[in-house]
Amino acid sequence: MIEILSSAALATVQDLGRTGSLRWGVGTSGAMDNLALAAGNLLLGNALGAAAVEVPVFPFKVRFGEDCAFALTGADCAARLDDQPLLPWWVHQARAGQVLTLGLPQGGAQRGSRAMLCVAGGIDVPEVLGSRSTQLRGAFGGHEGRALQRGDVLRAAGAATACRTGFGLVPPALALPLARDGVAAVRVLPAAEYMAFEPASRDAFWSGEWKITPQSDRYGYRLEGEPLRPIAPMELRSHGIVPGVIQVPHSGQPIIQMRDAQPSGGYPKLGTVIEADMWRLGQAPIGSRMRFIETTWDEALAALDEVRAWLDKVARMVALHRGAPRV
Amino acid sequence: MSPQASRTEPSISLLGTTALLFEAPGDMDLPSQQRIWALAHEADSWPEVREAVPGMNNLMLTFTRAPRHLDALCERLCDAWRAATAVPREGRVVELPVVYGGEGGPHMADVVAHTGLSIEAIVELHSAPLYPVYALGSHPGYCYLGGMDPRIATPRRKVPVLSIPGGAVSIGGAQTGVSASAGPSGWNTIGSTSMVFFDPAQDPPAMLQPGDMIRFRVEGIVR
After folding, report:
1. Which of A46, B21, B74, B188 can pair with A41 through a Cys bridge, CB separation 3.0 to 4.6 Å?
2. Which residues, given as ranges, of chain B have pLDDT below 50?
């Protein structure tokens, strides 16, 4: 049993997302940093998509009610188990009664913004429509269809099983860095209405820096920069969209759809952040600046391959550790 | 006006590496939507397609895994569109009582300002048709409806509203709909109703399907 001790809002149970229910209007949800979730699960020997707790607001505290192996990935939050400092991106063993505290994200401008608390076997909540992710808008999935609150008790499906601990990995922010002119960047494929924007606006989109405003959350990141102007006003027919789509409402300030985004929309789309870079956005702090890099279909597929290759490498490294004789 | 209305050929565009969007040409209408339903049914069986999701005279295909070669998929999609026929669906008719204006319709004034019509005229035009459900989207159980009178079309809001309540009846561009739960929206809310549209424990989880019909009954008008 894992008891939530802090009232820190907005922590949710997430897995890799709910695919296949878009036709009912159900968005995917899922971890904002899907790479941190997958890597944390690999470290524990879990299924890649086992559910974990995504923590966006700090400090965050839980008490382990029983012995339980866990991995901390995502933002480095100067975590402590009771008084003992913990390494990030590492597998640890908690004993019954110990308290885990996640502090503020470390690392200055390079800091992340969301920590993933992965536990042995994954967080044991019921699967709803094929996923354990919290559907906040629909109020189902995750833990009772809502963000976690003080006093909530979660169960780790594999708490009782022995798990090799005491090893970790180099985080993807270091292994797969991406920046343009010293500013964190993500790659974008142009979307249907790209050419319907003024040439100067298209240039400004690629060359400008974009600030992630405080009105940014799991639904979407509202950006601030030079306003983007369409050549003529557009009223589109509602259509399916996915996380990563960059919509430009009439205000001209773009909004990137994130994991809790609606599965459909009608604002003009300038482009889509490629799936391979969504984890970078998931870690981008509010108030930070970012840039967009234009990419092609082939480059975007190569980027996906690169992410898969990194996960494969993690899996091989974990297999070595887990297979090594105990000393 | 939608860029699709002036086109004679469908258009296909990318939604990153996750999905693509197929948009039918011509004016938005029910026969075209019936072809979209047929196309969705067909594409749902293709191995590279995770889900075929109808929109308003368009179709999103999400990928099981991003295909190496897009051209083949696009060609197959266009062929299937040409072969798709408009098959009417015999749906249910659901009546929803609506209170127009007042607290439950905070953007009625914007629709009045944009259309130049009185509240009474807007309510009459909005409650007259039998609206076919074209597609579900936006949030769990939400229905996109066809057949709104173009005289009450009102552009989406300059900045989306952070939260509108469940049961909000709203207009976005040439479309209308009812929100199934509270959440952000860029549409103009003109009234409110109460109805449970979604239950994840049911199969299917959504109460209404494409092809069902909604009628808005005027329960009251608050000026």
Report:
1. A46
2. none
Q: Are residues A58 and A186 in the same domain?
A: no
> Domains of chain B by range and CATH?
3-83 (3.30.1360.40), 93-222 (2.40.100.10)
Decide: B1 and A235 in contact? Cβ < 8 Å: yes
Token duo for residue A214: 């405080």
- CB neighbours (10 Å) of residue A8? 19
Probe site for chain A from B139, B178, B181 (most A CB atoms < 10 A): B139
Asked whether residue A147 falls in the same domain as residue A285, the answer is no
- The reply to whether residue A301 touches residue B23, judged by beta carbons under 8 angstroms, is no
User: Which residues contact residue B63 at a Cβ distance below 8 angstroms, ignoring those fewer than 6 apart?
Assistant: B17, B18, B19, B20, B48, B49, B50
Of B62, B142, B206, the CB nearest to A242: B62
∠ CA B81-B142-B82, nearest 5°, is 5
**A7: Cα separation from own chain's centroid:** 21
pLDDT tens, residue by residue, B158-176: 888 888 899 999 999 989 9
Whether residue B138 and residue A234 make contact (CB cut-off 8 A), yes or no, is: no
Residue among A29, A57, A35, A60 at smallest CA distance from A48: A35
Helix axes B30-43, B70-83, angle to 10 degrees: 130
> Quick check: B3 contacting A, CB < 8 Å?
yes
In chain A, alpha helices (H): 34-44, 172-175, 199-207, 278-283, 297-323
